[in-house]
Write a structure and sequence with these properties.
Layout lengths: L1 E5 L18 H11 L3 H7 L7 H23 L4 E4 L3 H8 L5 H17 L4 E6 L2 H12 L4 E8 L2 E6 L1 H14 L4 E5 L11 H12 L10 E2 L13 H5 L7 E2 H10 L4 E5 L4 H12 L62 H6 L6 E3 L9 H9 L5 E2 L6 H14 L7 E5 L5 H13 L4 E5 L6 H8 L3 E2 L5 E2 L3 E6 L2 H8 L4 H9 L5 H7 L7 E5 L4 E2 L5 H17 L7 E5 L5 H9 L4 E4 L13 H8 L6 E5 L9 E5 L5 H14 L8 H12 L3 H14 L3 H9 L1 H22 L15 H9 L12 H19 L1
Parallel strand pairs: 1-2, 1-9, 2-7, 4-8, 10-20, 11-12, 12-13, 13-16, 16-17, 17-19, 19-20
Antiparallel strand pairs: 3-5, 3-6, 4-5, 14-15, 18-22, 21-22
Length: 779
């Protein structure tokens, strides 16, 4: 049996629906009429409006409804449907209780009523469980706080007055240091008695709305059971706004009913994670000779061959993502063969089942969903901070902190920018404030003071006198001269400067002086994005020898050496281990997964690549230097147009020197607007971001101005790809290496041929268990 699950509020994001809105013009026109605004503009460019309940709810209902309609023919009808809070309205649409227009009208009114509620607070409670929360509520004597969402065995949301929620969370955390409480940024106490006025008003709206009997079972949030046949749907639906969302019980009911497959519609795999947690922690089947109660037939926990159980993801809370926890160790799958490859110490330090990590991809393509999914599967991933402002990095850290228990392993990318040392220092300061213990250092041509600060902070001598680092630095390098810097201790002058300014203590500086800058050195060969196009067969043995020589003169723990680039098959991973790699790190293949933070349009493109469908093009961030990145060439004109822009820049001193015909071609093809407008937008961007001196310099230097205009194309081509703007697909800039094509050929004809089934942990399992089999067969 298959259940279809719809996510609720909290899963909205700007750009959602890009892959389906244009396919349903009549539905979008109808939504425009009902809402009095452009649904396409709201979903793709809504910005801060999508944080408001009155806009978020109709936008999500529309996108989820169209996503269901788009996939209905391929996936068929489900056996049962359910939705988390707002998602229940989509479930009712699937069951024929209401049509698209009727559902949207109800959701718009629901969003308005809930958005008008004011006062109150909510908080996610991690690690206490429903029984623990209810026990604390009873002991507190407070009647102004109640459970709003029972999402899973490890995650509960409470709701009530601000004073009450504050008092209860203090009691919960004081009683057990393992319990975490995360306040949610909401304006009211949703799913609590505080919503009674809104519920009464919405019940009146429902009374005037025709609702048909469900033609499929729909699980009610209020009862965690199907809507009863013969009883009006409005009776239960009217209570939903102020009632508890009984999601744990809903998952248990699906399991008891024989459901063995779920399909989720919504960003990420939040509800799928709750389903799998329920399956993993469900009571075992009855022993032979013992009857199983008829009300609770024994159903085996959901198991996907070759795939680890993932972490529960963020639930659809009323107005914001809610935290979740990683499954207990007792529910983890048995260790597969690939767990014996590489360095045992790497697995210990990074707390990973494999000597394997998912590397960062810029602008959050290596997303928080990816990081949480990897952690929940007993694996390790880095979040991609490149190209994000400090506020975006902080938001990612907050999101990860809400969704993982304290101390859960994950890493953050630290991308070097030779033009912005202050930004690098601010990022490191942020990492230290948040207690980030693992950093992937990329694009460094030299060791910098902020990087040394990160590595040295907390360093000390153990009781035996050996230097110990608290923070791990995995440095991605492709040149021996850079590798030597990371294999050596920090330059003394940098340690002295950091100590003099008070950033490091004398103890930290002294311990760091005996430690290499990197804990791990990753050889980056033929990868996507910035790459020197190196060959792993040459680089990896060279760097291993460099490490061995450095280790002979050091008294700390030896640096581990790994490999990245071109790893898209088990054979490639096996070759890296055979060459002496302590670990492997993947990138391109993870970009084509449900957890990747790029658009579905890009994932569709990536899933069709072969090994020859990538090439090199100029890099936007280092455009003037002629630096190059590896990108997709199939299905996009970006490489050709980017190369044309660089050649024009190289040959001309200013825009005015380029012939009129070429300029017209650029305006029509690359930019889609006059170059004068491009410059106006570029200048406004730098002024708005507090860098007017860049504009001033460019207005005095025509070649600098030309470079900034051309670089606008690179930024816009990345934005178009991330948003899945199909009208601009010819200009998609997608960083990718040949590993993607190799992986596509590997999974051709299997369940993983569809990128929608390529969860990042499934990719890791396939590559690592396959690598173990390759090496075993070669013995």
């Amino acid at each position: 049996m298959r259940a279809l699950l719809f996510a609720g509020q909290g899963s909205q994001r700007q750009g959602m629906g890009a892959e389906v809105l244009d396919a349903f013009p009549e539905h979008c026109a109808l939504a425009d009429d009902i809402l009095g605004l452009s649904i396409r503009e709201l979903c793709l460019h809504g910005g801060d409006r999508l944080r408001l309940t009155r806009y978020a709810q109709p936008a999500l209902f529309t996108v989820h409804a169209l996503t269901y309609l788009a996939g209905r023919e391929e996936q068929g009808e489900p056996d049962v449907v359910a939705g988390h809070s707002l998602g229940e309205f989509n479930a009712l649409m699937v069951a024929g209780v209401l049509d698209f227009a009727g559902g949207l009208r109800l959701v718009a009114e629901r969003g308005r009523l809930m958005g008008e509620a004011d006062g109150g607070a909510m908080a996610a409670v991690l690690g206490a469980g429903l029984t623990g929360v209810e026990r604390t509520l009873a002991a507190s004597g407070r009647t102004d706080v109640e459970v709003a969402n029972d999402n899973s065995a490890t995650q509960v949301v409470i709701s009530g007055t601000a004073a009450g929620v504050s008092a209860v969370t203090a009691l919960l955390t004081a009683g057990d240091p393992a319990i975490r409480c995360v306040p949610l940024p909401v304006s009211a106490a949703f799913h609590s008695r505080e919503m009674a006025p809104a519920a009464r008003a919405f019940a009146a709206v429902l009374a005037g709305t025709p609702l048909a009997p469900p033609r499929l079972p729909v699980i009610s949030n209020v009862t965690a059971r199907p809507y009863p046949p013969g009883e009006p749907v409005a009776a239960l639906l009217g209570r939903q706004i102020r009632s508890r969302v009984r999601w744990t019980e809903t998952m248990e009911h699906l399991l008891d009913s024989g459901v063995d497959e779920v399909t989720e519609i919504g960003r990420g795999r939040t509800l799928t994670g709750f389903w799998r947690e329920a399956a993993a922690t469900r009571r075992p089947p009855a022993a032979p000779g013992r009857a199983t109660p008829a009300s609770a037939p024994a159903v085996p926990a959901l198991a996907v061959p070759g795939r680890a159980t993932p972490a529960p993801a963020v639930p659809a809370a009323p107005t914001a993502p809610v935290a979740s926890a990683v499954p207990a160790a007792s529910t983890a799958p048995a260790e597969p063969a690939g767990s014996g490859l590489g360095s045992a110490r790497f697995r210990e330090v990074y707390r990973s089942r494999y000597a394997y990590a998912a590397g960062s991809m810029f602008q959050g393509i290596a997303s928080t969903d990816l990081v949480v999914r990897m952690a929940g599967a007993g694996l390790f991933g880095f979040f991609g901070t490149g190209g994000l402002p400090l506020s975006g990095i902080r938001a990612a850290l907050d999101d990860i902190g809400r969704r993982l228990p304290p101390g859960a392993p994950y890493g953050m990318n630290l991308l070097h920018d030779m033009t912005d040392g202050a930004g690098e220092r601010a990022t490191v300061d942020l990492f230290l404030r948040y207690g980030v213990r693992y950093v992937e250092a990329a694009a460094f041509t030299r060791v910098t003071a902020p990087l040394v600060l990160y590595r040295a902070k907390g360093a000390h001598r153990d009781p035996g006198g050996r230097p110990v680092a608290v923070n791990q630095v995995l440095a991605k390098v492709s040149r021996p001269e850079v590798a030597r810097q990371f294999l050596a201790p920090p330059p003394p002058e940098l340690l002295d400067r950091l100590r003099a300014e008070g950033a490091l203590t004398a103890e930290e500086a002294a311990a760091a002086a005996a430690l290499p800058v990197a804990s791990d050195l990753c050889v980056e060969s033929d990868s996507g994005g910035h790459t020197d196009g190196g060959v792993a067969l040459a680089l990896l043995p060279t760097f291993v020898r460099l490490r061995d020589r450095a280790a002979a003169a050091a008294d700390g723990e030896p640096v581990r050496v790994g490999a990245a680039g071109g790893i898209g098959t088990p054979e490639a991973a096996a070759a890296c281990f055979l060459l002496g790699a302590d670990f492997v790190l993947t990138g391109s293949v993870n970009q084509c997964s449900p957890q990747a933070g790029t658009s579905d349009a890009v994932k569709d493109l990536l899933a069709g690549l072969d090994v020859q469908d990538v090439t090199y093009a100029p890099a936007g961030d280092l455009f003037e230097l002629g630096s190059r990145v590896q990108v997709v060439r199939r299905g996009t004109l970006f490489p050709a147009r980017a190369n044309q822009l660089y050649e024009l820049y190289r040959r001309h001193a200013r825009l005015e020197d380029i012939d009129a015909r070429t300029l017209a071609t650029l305006e029509r093809g690359c930019f889609g607007r006059p170059l004068a407008e491009v410059w106006d937008r570029t200048a406004r961007h730098y002024r708005d971001t507090g860098r007017p001196e860049i504009v001033h310099d460019a207005e005095r230097d025509p070649k600098r101005r030309m470079a900034l205009v051309f670089k606008w194309y690179f930024a816009e081509s990345s934005r178009a790809a991330l948003a899945g703007a199909k009208e601009n697909s010819a200009n998609f800039q997608v960083h990718c290496g040949p590993a993607m094509g190799a992986f596509n050929r590997l999974v051709e004809g299997t369940a993983l041929e569809s990128w929608r089934r390529r969860d990042v942990d499934a990719i890791a399992d396939l590559l690592m268990t396959g690598a173990a089999e390759v090496l075993a067969a070669a013995r």
